[in-house]
Amino acid sequence: MREYWPELLGVIAAYLCGSIPFGYLLGRIKGIDIRKKGSGNIGATNLTRVLGRPWGVACFILDFLKGLVPVLIIPWLYTHSHPLLPVAVAGAAIAGHIWPVFLWFRGGKGVATSLGALVAVHPQSTPLAVLAAAVTWGIVFLFTRYVSVASLAAAVALPVTAAVIMLANGRFNWVVLGLLAAVAVVLILRHRSNIRRLRQGSELRFEKKTGGTA
Questions:
Q1: Are 56 and 147 in contact (CB under 8 A)?
Q2: Do residues 133 and 52 lie in contact, with contact meaning Cβ atoms separated by under 8 Å?
Q3: Torsion of CA 28, 61, 91, 5, to 10 degrees
């Protein structure tokens, strides 16, 4: 067990990287606590509603990168790393965003960070799966104008697309597929309040002309 301590430190580092609350920090730059504005979420959608599209885009990119960078760098630092290290690092980065230690474990929904972490975790399947999820998100949002509905559709598309790709390649990676399925479940659970508002008809929708909310 002792030989895995360096890799465990890498997983912890990934969690801390994922815990960096970029949405909250961007809000502070503008002099506001984003947790007390709009929906109260620290993600890109709420920043877009409260501060405008450039701030939302910046938040999305930063959240995406804090998922991607640990998966690219941390396994590379170890010459003979455990084959499951990329999966553990990806999961830790995503968990950091959703349950950030720096904000008392109250974070965002995890969509951008999940996409960033998963795109590099299994080069044989996840890049195309993330691309399919992103395309799904774009199409659903285009027709519904609901970010939450688009995010839920993208969450479902991730493991389904990865499974199809693995089946086509004839090589299943059950650990990676399990991670994708777990992430999809967590993302859906994180959108429970959105699902409730959708059923009540009170979910906020982005208008096509102004990018505001209805």
A1: no
A2: no
A3: -80
pLDDT of 144-169, one tens digit each? Answer: 999 999 999 999 999 999 999 999 98
Longest Cα pair distance anywhere in the chain, in angstroms? 58
164-207 pLDDT per residue, tens = 999 998 888 999 999 999 999 999 999 999 999 999 999 988 87
How far is residue 119's CA from residue 129's CA, in Å, rounded to a whole number?
8
Output the six-digit token pair for 132: 């399919």
Which percentage of the chain shows pLDDT scores above 70? 94
Would you give the distance in Å from CA 71 to the centre of its chain?
Answer: 13
CA dihedral 56, 58, 61, 64 (to 10 degrees): -60
Task: Write out the E strands in the chain.
Answer: none
Residue pointed to by tokens 């993208």: 154
Task: Record the pTM.
Answer: 0.90
CA–CA dist 148, 13 (Å, integer): 30
Token pair 């709420």: residue:
46
Structure-block tokens of residue 16: 């801390």
Q: Which two tokens stand for residue 182?
A: 């777990």
H/E segment holding residue 21: none
Place of tokens 């598309």: 157
Give the pair of three-digit tokens for residue 87.
């999966």
DSSP class of residue 81 equals -
Structure tokens at 195: 């699902």
Q: What are phi and psi of 206, to 5 degrees?
A: -80, 130
